[in-house]
Design brief:
The structure is a homodimer of 559-residue chains. Chain A has 559 residues and is α+β, with helices and mostly antiparallel strands. Chain A is built from 20 helices and 19 strands. In chain A, 39% of the residues lie in helices and 19% in strands. In chain A, strand 9 and strand 10 form a beta hairpin. The radius of gyration of chain A is 23 Å and the shape is globular. Chains A and B meet through strand 10, helix 11, strand 17, helix 18 and strand 19 of A and strand 10, helix 11, strand 17, helix 18 and strand 19 of B.
Chain lengths: 559, 559
């Protein structure tokens, strides 16, 4: 049990510099991989550290199409927001060319910005957004809403689709908390607030949103809602779709206002659930009303291990089913044997000690579990921790040093930095996720992992396929895969083959095509498989109503 | 703390006879009002017990339009389900003429069945439903889906709208649990299972749905999902929209299959939330996948009182915000001063004693609170009860005899019987409900009550307006009003005036137009006020996609 360290708190509220166009985050926060990690990568993948990592091409060498925006279109945009907020310079366009997937960064690092928008506009408020949508509808300009730009599914690529030009509407100036109701524990936010800004605005009032995806430091609250996001602590605080209570959606046909009137309603189908997950294809979210929670001051940590993935899954199932929400941990992470092995391998001497430890305890397929509980009362936290331990002990867990949980927390946002570094040494790093019922979880895990391994074997490429369960529910859980492999001659084709095989395995295996990464361009076919032809007709009908010209985020969510 | 009595368990699983066409439930379960209640009604409303209660007109005297169904339409329906399952007799048509609102029963008791459907069909399965929808679409026959027939908002009235005739599709033969997954704690049901049947099917497996609206003994699980129902224990087990994980919707354009693939997904807008609350206007639900919970064996009971409604609301807010879900009570009911007074008045000697008790404790505006906790472990129940008591004591609660909570449980499904009896003596009994944020709850309560009192004063009619809070959430709660008044010369106009005034007060006061009764015909305008013109266009677009001919439940949900 620890009072929350200022370092841990800072990580949640510290605003960092925006990511460079070719990578992630603030370079000052990157920590190079130590030698021991490279030793492991060489052993497992035959990958060696290059003497000089390959750098992204220089900005001036990026292949950027000429802006297709007509002068009168440019003038019309300037008339809405003012000349200072309409950007056609090379940097702005390249920064808005893509999100932050491996595919996006691979292409950008190699100088391919073919998908850059023709112009970037930064409106001041909802009114300017409504006006911009009118202008773009009348002039048939594609609109790509842009929050933090952290999509990993192609959700913000700036291609115009069938339209003459594409306008990226960057929401960074809509960055205020508009109101807070401490009695009802709700707050209203503009969409462009980044994760740390949201926490920074809530903290003086004693509240938190409790929403920390790995993209937290860069992603925006509007993006969370638009993509049905889940965060690292969503087992405790709830997914974004459980936290959102109202939203305003500016569309080309007017503004859809779904105010929070009540915590729950029987007034027909819940239209708010069309806004949540709308991914900029139905409109631009200009305001969200969120449930907030008391800001915790203390954290309890635990790490433990199970002898096998199957037993560990049963343990987490007990945790989710036998302990009430609010008692079970706020953060639950179970690594499968591959992720456990790699994590311990990357952890250096401490990792070697732990590996020896699991060996001594006869855990050859050991699975690490990291648990965090947050709150304001040490006794309650102790009781919650004891209750979880009791459940997991009965399921076969053994204790591990809680330093592992601290280490996880310290590195909770560092994954993307690591990927940037690995890409400089010719390593492909891809993540993908799904969710399914408890009864189907292990089978789906094995099926997806096998599909990725099979396609990599076909390519003659060694691969690490590791997975964790990071969100548990009474009826099921998520699976989050990380794929690491040496880049083949055509890394884009290599990526596509892996992605296609994994998606096919997920769909055929009964999982959802995405648990929290959203649809973007990558999962458009998967979504259709999931909701069927009639489901897609319904979605299309909603889009045709709110965006009859089809200018909103063309190619994303629905074709 | 008590092991659940067999009487309490029986009430949840005992299948009762279907309601008569003019009233509620099994007449054998009705308990006539005692003298003391009539004394109170005379004192408060000037209402006296009639020597002979007015009886509903005889079935043969009900004014029933000739069936408008053409012979070839009749033959086409028979070809799908078989002659034995197509009913055009007087009783079947009158039984399907309406739901169970005051308005419905007032009209039927007086012999007005103008809204009766022209034919009642009872299909065997989903395939027959799909075929029936094809036939009705091709022949332009209105379709009214009918589950338990317990709508109190005009959701099942059998009028054909702009079509030649209306077909009531009664789902009573789709009454099986199709599968259960005890590992994931989910089960799949056909839509026509009534509440007790659902519990009866789950109990041998050790599970419960935990969904007990007052209509439990008559209503169906398909109806629950179609109306976004909430039950008396939904504070504990969750609203139906929190329990439903998948659904199949037969429509005139094909079948929308939204299987449960995962406990949560980011695969676009959640289309399942269009099925939940679709009220038969988008299709007929033929299958639902629900989360189920371990069947409890023990119940803890508590009753307490607050000095004022405002303090009681603050107490319930603390309960909802400070205690985790799963710790706080499963049933929470707070009666406002009027409902408390009437409840104690109706409770006879025990009530007089309690009234004296609250007086002695200087609680002139006392508000009763009833709490139930359910579970399988006595120690946990004791701890949960102690935690709630601690929160409420700090908020100003005083203990009352827990017999009050037992009495509530015993009478939990008895309200509609009481209404039947009162209607026989010329008394109007109407219920309506809303929900809003905690910050707005007392203001909305006062506003709605004042609006009903004002319109009654305009009519020169005394009135009892009582209210309870029965569903609490971290961000707000529900308000459930019961209106009791002597019937005026034109009780239908009287009802309409009350309903119109209450709805206007709810909409203007920032509440939702319905927390769990759904839209039906009564709240069509309220829904439009709530989601706005663009929201209604979205809903209409969805309907046009799934029901382009508009035959599904015309006049309900959307015009």
């Amino acid at each position: 049990m620890f009072h929350m360290t200022s370092a841990a708190q800072d990580a949640l509220t510290r605003t960092i510099s925006r990511s460079p166009w070719h990578g992630w985050g603030d370079p000052a926060d990157a920590h190079p991989l130590p030698d021991r990690s490279w030793t492991m990568l060489r052993r497992e993948l035959g990958v060696t550290r290059r003497p000089q990592p390959t750098r992204p091409v220089a900005l001036e060498d990026v292949r950027l199409p000429e802006s297709r925006l007509a002068p009168d279109d440019l003038a019309a945009l300037r008339a809405v927001v003012g000349t200072a907020y309409v950007h056609t310079d090379r940097l702005a366009r390249v920064e808005h060319a893509a999100g932050k997937s491996y595919l996006d960064l691979r292409r950008l690092r190699d100088g391919d910005a073919a998908d850059a928008p023709d112009v970037v506009v930064t409106p001041a408020d909802a009114t300017e957004i409504e006006q911009l949508l009118s202008v773009c509808r009348d002039r048939r300009l594609a609109v790509v809403p842009f929050g933090g730009g952290t999509s990993v599914v192609g959700g913000v690529t700036g291609s115009p689709g069938p339209f003459a030009a594409a306008v990226s509407i960057d929401l960074r100036r809509l960055n205020r908390m508009l109101s807070i109701d401490p009695v009802s524990r709700t707050a209203v936010f503009q969409p462009g607030m980044r994760g740390p800004d949201v926490e920074g605005a809530l903290r003086p009032h004693g509240f938190t949103l409790g929403h920390y995806p790995q993209s937290h430091q860069e992603a925006t609250i509007g993006g969370y809602v638009a993509t049905r996001s889940a965060g690292q602590a969503s087992t405790g605080y709830g997914r974004i779709d459980e936290l959102v209570l109202g939203a305003t959606l500016a569309t080309t046909e007017g503004t859809l206002r779904l105010d929070m009137r009540a915590p729950a309603s029987a007034a027909g189908p819940r239209l708010l659930d069309l806004v949540v997950g709308s991914e900029g294809a139905l409109g631009i979210i200009t305001e969200v009303t969120m449930a907030v929670a008391p800001m915790p001051s203390q954290t309890a940590y635990a790490a433990l291990a199970f002898p096998s993935f199957g037993e560990a899954v049963e343990g987490l199932r007990s945790l989710a089913q036998d302990l009430p929400h609010g008692i079970r941990p706020d953060v639950v992470r179970l690594s499968d044997p591959d992720e456990t092995r790699v994590s311990l391998g990357l952890a250096g001497r401490a990792g070697q000690a732990l590996a020896a430890y699991t060996k001594a305890r006869r855990l050859p397929a050991a699975c690490l579990v990291v648990l965090l509980w947050e709150g304001n009362d040490a006794r309650t936290l102790r009781e919650r921790k004891a209750a979880s331990w009791e459940v997991l002990r009965r399921a076969g867990a053994v204790r591990m040093p809680s330093a592992i949980a601290h280490a996880w927390e310290k590195g909770r946002f560092s994954g993307p930095y690591l990927r940037d570094e690995l890409m400089g040494h010719g390593v492909l790093v891809e993540t993908l996720e799904t969710a399914t019922s408890w009864a189907n979880l292990v089978a789906l895990h094995d099926r997806v992992a096998a599909a990725i391994r099979a396609v990599s074997a076909d390519q003659g490429v060694p691969v690490i396929v590791q997975c964790h369960v990071s969100h548990v529910y009474p009826t099921g859980a998520s699976l989050y895969f990380t794929v690491v492999a040496p880049e083949a001659a055509d890394p884009l084709a290599q990526w596509r083959a892996v992605k296609t095989a994994a998606t096919a395995a997920i769909v055929a295996g009964g999982g959802t095509v995405t648990h929290h990464h959203a649809v973007g361009t990558d999962h458009v076919d998967g979504l259709a498989a999931e909701v069927g032809e009639l489901g897609m007709r319904v979605l299309r009908a909603v889009k045709d109503t709110l965006d009859p010209t089809g200018i909103l985020n063309p190619g994303k969510l629905v074709r």
